[in-house]
Amino acid sequence: MDFLPDLATSTPLWLALTTVGVNAVVGSLRASTDDERHWDIVGLSTFGVLMGLGGGFIRDLLVGNLPVESLRTPWYLTTVLGAILVVLVFGRHLARVSILVTTLNALALGLFAISGVAYALRADLPVMSAMFVGVVSAVGGGVLVSVMKDEVPAILLTSAPNALVALLVSGVYVATDVWDSRVAGLAGIVTAVIAHFVAHALGLRTRRADSPAALLFTRDKRDD
Amino acid sequence: MDFLPDLATSTPLWLALTTVGVNAVVGSLRASTDDERHWDIVGLSTFGVLMGLGGGFIRDLLVGNLPVESLRTPWYLTTVLGAILVVLVFGRHLARVSILVTTLNALALGLFAISGVAYALRADLPVMSAMFVGVVSAVGGGVLVSVMKDEVPAILLTSAPNALVALLVSGVYVATDVWDSRVAGLAGIVTAVIAHFVAHALGLRTRRADSPAALLFTRDKRDD
Amino acid sequence: MDFLPDLATSTPLWLALTTVGVNAVVGSLRASTDDERHWDIVGLSTFGVLMGLGGGFIRDLLVGNLPVESLRTPWYLTTVLGAILVVLVFGRHLARVSILVTTLNALALGLFAISGVAYALRADLPVMSAMFVGVVSAVGGGVLVSVMKDEVPAILLTSAPNALVALLVSGVYVATDVWDSRVAGLAGIVTAVIAHFVAHALGLRTRRADSPAALLFTRDKRDD
User: Fold this and answer.
1) CA–CA dist C100, C90 (Å, integer)
2) How confident is the model at residue C1 (pLDDT cuts 50, 70, 90)?
């Protein structure tokens, strides 16, 4: 399997930057498409930075990989800047290419999750901790944006099961990594995209956590 | 005093896990007993993790003890997982054994405070900084849960004086540690439990901070 | 230019403590002058600590400068304690000397920004990352206080352009630092004070970020 790149530990730069850029666009849109509050350029940029780089910040802090990796080269911040400009210029029009954004989003979730797992394993953390870091890397950026917006992070309420997809991806990565880390990276990404679309197609939503049934899903055709 | 374990720096694992587990239960209950919002399994787990491990995360980050200590073995996350399952299965019934939960909570506050102080001292921080880290370790987890819930952390408003109990515990630990670190650990824990029950019995509450009188307490028999 | 101190990397202690103290006063006032909620001594102290030291905490975490610098000596916490006492005793009267507070605030913004840039450069981060760390150091403390208050940070909404002043200061520092780091420190501080007063005098406010025009300002004479 030597022809495959090791996606988790040496993600090709173009792929890493694409996912950061897509996430930054999604983050910045949470400012420019908000009709309730008047976010300024600082708010929009903050959401872009946190959504694009925040998960990685949390990963690097927990694991002790400092200075945080995305600040060690100018490419990540440059990409985020580009994403911010794209949102300023095209704004709401971007929301219309939602199928593309959804796919890239699933890809980003997967990449963030597997890089979180891989970095944690490299720091000699046990498998369970690595899966935890993977999930936190994948969903941490969105949570930070919600905190800045003074909102409850959507993933903590009954919602589409994004955090559970990240957990599944982390599990698949960990299981496959025992055999071959290159295949593990690919398996993780493929799992992310498939799980995302299956969850979407079936309208899976998490349940209210007031009984053990919270471990199951409900189905809701109006799921976004 | 050699027969005493050094509670702050080498807390017996069963004791550390018990306090983490109790705190995780308390955190998870903040999701499952909330009638206003529909927290899902991700929200409930997040509250359990942050309440059980969040104070330690903050301590390790401020002190530079990375990767964060509770991720270096699988035991802490396993304990939190167990706590989450307990809350899912028994839910509101747990709130009824409140005298037990209150005692364990006071114990947990004390243990988190003294471990915060001890880790800071070990990192060669001065006494004042160590007490700061102690207080932050003790109350940080609850503050993080409140931030996730989009609520003001209760300890910042007029309330039961938990943060001040943590400060007292840190002070007692620091003062006794000059003489013997084993006794210091025990003195800190005992202080935590006594101060907690005295504050509760007298109905002590902090005052509004608009004058120097804010350094005193009021008494309120309806104190929760 | 050898007679100038290197403000960013070896800020004279009296100057560093003055800016931390001023910021801590401003933070604590956000508790004691709040008529909506009853913040207690813990809340007031938390705001003072976060406003005075929070930006530095974030800087040190991102850059990996651990344990965080302001905890390595007792002077910073002692200064914050002093600021808290001043606010408790003098309270609302302090808000009246607003011209002094405004000037010291501008100075503090500048000092935090240049120390952020300098620490990042010393950690071998590229220029763009250093400017990012500079801005985050300058505005991070206020953002953390807003999160604790369960409010949207004002700088993320249409408001006085404080974050952009911090960006300008960081840019001036980086540009001048190529030539001489001592002059860079002074240039950064002078830029901060001038930009702050120009923005105030002209009533500059940021715009809503829904088009590229968000990169410009509006003018509003009622700007606070």
Assistant:
1) 15
2) low
